Amino acid sequence: MQDSRCKKSDLWGTPRHLILEKGWDSWYDPCPYPPSEINGLDVDWLKYSKIFINPPYSNIKPWAKKCAETIERAKELNQEIEIDLLIPLATPKYYWDFINGKCTSEFLKKRLKFI
Description:
By secondary structure, the chain is an alpha+beta fold. Helix content is about 25%, strand content about 5%. Helix 2 packs parallel to helix 3 (about 95-100).
């Protein structure tokens, strides 16, 4: 199951049109909607080459941290990996600690309507 600290208001699925547009439908999703019984933070993401995450917005930091750690480990192993993390436009401290300068950021031009 998703992180037990996840709030009920975090349970929103990514719009299907965006999943299809970005090609995420065939990627590993450690934080799926509806929620899984498996905590995606406990899974070894290095088993996958493409990972898409729409984390609970009330608790993004551990997901961003795992992304950074996974990318660093993949570099050490000379393993190709791509991780797309869908997060709000606001750029709090975790963005600067774990994302900025470590990966490519793409900003969507309009607000999403979640499922």
